[in-house]
Recover the amino acids of this structure.
């Protein structure tokens, strides 16, 4: 009994440390990326008839039955229902977004003028959505990033001023972004037997990148350690970007990474007061800038 008590106290002491919490969030988020983000891009193309169909404004709506965060969506069931009734479905709210009761969560397109969205089908479509009072990391990679960013922002606040925790957050955010950087953006179209059945707002690398970098940068003024760590992250992601097999995304991501590096250095120029510290940041930025310029030639 005494041994169990000692183990329990030790376990609790370790598990509530900031590093343990951050690493746990990062592990769960990385698992979600591997489970939900494909290694290959979708090759199907939308045919002309379907393009005209989803461009129409006369669609049917499925409204939310309650307010809350979308915690999960049964994509397979939505595709099955689309197949069964020959429909194209467009998600108005995806996982992680907040929805309000009676507002649309799905748009329903059909070329059958006699089609009616009856109560049974409406309920079946609603049941594909799990709506709760809070967000979860399951299927919502952005929330995993959001949690770590929030920890970093609290650590950077003047009242706490915990640089070590902020740097740890940047390190784990980088590990998550490395996992994302190896994959194309998450597909926004789902097909069945070559026919479009489901579409929703695309989750792009740019969205996750901005979430992981912008707010921490904006709150890291004068903090040389965090500024240097973010520049180091930029350098790592730039190196991986060269290896991405999708040319269009490589170009977009390189510009995004290059812009972020400039913003970080501009922040340092304005907020780092000691000349020696600013020179350290400048020297490191010049090396990163040179690497970015060299890699641009290989994109």
């Amino acid at each position: 009994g005494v041994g169990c008590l000692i183990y329990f106290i030790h376990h609790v002491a370790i598990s509530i440390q900031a590093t343990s919490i951050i690493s746990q969030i990062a592990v769960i988020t990385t698992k979600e990326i591997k489970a939900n983000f494909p290694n290959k891009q979708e090759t199907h193309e939308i045919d002309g008839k379907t393009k005209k169909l989803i461009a129409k404004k006369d669609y049917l709506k499925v409204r939310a039955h309650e307010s809350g965060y979308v915690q999960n969506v049964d994509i397979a069931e939505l595709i099955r229902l689309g197949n069964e009734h020959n429909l194209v479905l467009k998600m108005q709210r995806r996982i992680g977004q907040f929805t309000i009761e009676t507002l649309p969560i799905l748009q329903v397109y059909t070329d059958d003028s006699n089609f009616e969205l009856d109560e049974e089908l409406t309920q079946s479509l609603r049941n594909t959505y799990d709506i709760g009072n809070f967000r979860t990391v399951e299927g919502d990679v952005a929330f995993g990033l959001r949690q770590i960013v929030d920890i970093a922002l609290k650590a950077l606040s003047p009242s706490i001023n915990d640089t070590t925790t902020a740097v740890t957050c940047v390190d784990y955010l980088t590990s998550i972004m490395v996992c994302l950087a190896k994959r194309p953006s998450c597909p926004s179209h789902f097909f069945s037997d070559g026919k479009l059945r489901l579409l929703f707002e695309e989750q792009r690398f740019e969205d996750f990148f901005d979430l992981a970098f912008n707010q921490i940068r904006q709150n890291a003024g004068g903090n040389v350690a965090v500024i240097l760590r973010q520049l180091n992250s930029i350098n790592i992601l730039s190196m991986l970007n060269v290896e991405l097999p999708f040319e269009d995304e490589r170009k977009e991501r390189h510009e995004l990474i290059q812009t972020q590096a400039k913003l970080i250095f501009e922040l340092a120029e304005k907020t780092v007061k000691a000349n020696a510290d600013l020179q350290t940041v400048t020297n490191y930025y010049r090396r990163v800038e040179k690497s970015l310029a060299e890699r641009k030639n290989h994109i």
In short: The mean pLDDT is 90. The CA atoms of residues 9 and 15 lie 10 Å apart. Strands lie at 60-63, 68-73, 88-91, 98-99, 104-109, 129-132, 189-192, 195-199.
